[in-house]
Amino acid sequence: MSEYFLGVDGGQSSTTAVIGDRAGRIVGWASAGPCNHVAAAEAKAKFVRVMRECLSQAAVRAGMEAGGTHRSFKAACLGMSGGPADKNALLHELIDSEHLIVTHDAAIALAGALSGEPGIAVIGGTGSIAFGQNARGETVRAGGWGYVFGDEGGAFDIARQALRAILREQEGWGGRTALTPALLEAASAADANELLHVFYTPEWPRHRVAGLARVVNKIADDGDPVAVGILQHAAQELALLAGFVRRQLWREGEPARVAWIGGVFNSAILLERFRALVSLEDNTTCAAPDHGPATGALLLAYRAAGSGVKLERSTAAEQHPSPDR
Fold first, then answer.
1. Neighbouring-strand partners of residue 121
2. For residue 293, which of 271, 257, 325 has the smallest C-alpha distance?
3. pLDDT digits over 9-31, tens only?
4. How far is CA 93 from each of CA 67, 70, 96, 155, 249, rounded to the nearest angstrom?
5. How far apart are the first and last CA of the chain?
6. Which of 21, 117, 261, 294 is close enough to 16 for a disulfide, judged by CB 3.0 to 4.6 Å?
C-alpha cells in the first residue's frame, strides 16, 4: 500500500494542498479559497468546506482511493494564517494521519523557502511577518499582528496607504497622484469619500482590498512619486522585520540567509529596495524561495515521519507556484 504525505498552506487569500509519495515525488496538488479565522459558525462552516474541497481535489490528482471525506496520510503538516489554535480540533476531525502537525503559516513558509535549512523568511502577502530559525533550533518572529495593529508592508497596508494618499489629496494637504483616478476606476467609485465607504462593505473583504496593491505597483511603474514612495516605505518596513529577527538569532557578521515570499515582492520597485536594505547587514544573503509554503509544509510532514527525502526545486516550483498570499 502506498504511503502519502500532506502539506497545506491555509492563507488569507487562498488555501493550497500538496501531496507527496514515499519517494518524495509531488503527486497531487490543489488550491481553493481562503481559510483564515473560524470563530463564528458561518466562518467555521466555510473553513471546513474549503479544506474538504482542497484536500479532495489534491487526492484525486494523487490517485488516492476515495474514502469519503477522510483519506489516510502517513504524516501531514498544515500551516494556518492567524495561527493554529482555533483550527486544530477541526483539522484533527478532517484528516486521518499517523503524524499530524498544525502550525502557523510562517513556519511552513520558512521550511519551503530555505528547504528546511536555517534562515529567515519574510512574507509580504495580504499581511506581513518575518520568521527565523537558526542552526540551534531557536526561533523568533516579528510582525504578523493583523491588519488593524500590524501587517506593515503587506498588500492590504499598501492599498490602505494609497487610499490615505488619495484622501489627503482630496482634502488639499497631500500631493497630486495618479493613484486617485486609478483606484476610483478599479472600485467603480465616484470620489475618494465613496471609495472609503466602499471598502467598509462586505463586497470588499480584506483580500480584495489587498488586491489593489497591484494597481499601486502599476502606477509606481509609470513614475508616480506618491506610489513609488508607498512601495519603498513598504520595503523598508519588511526589511526592518528581517533585521530584527536576524539580530535576535545571529551574531553580528555571522552568515544568515533571507528569503522573500508573497505577492508584494512581484513589485520590482519594492523588491529592489528590500534587497538593498537587507544586504546592508554584514554577511547576509537575500534570494527568492526554493519552494512555496505548501511544499514547506510537505517537507515538515516528511520530517515528522522521520523521512529525509528532498524535493527537486524545479519540480515543486512548476507544479506548485508560491501563492499570492
1. 131, 259
2. 325
3. 987 678 899 999 988 889 999 98
4. 14, 9, 8, 33, 36
5. 35
6. 294
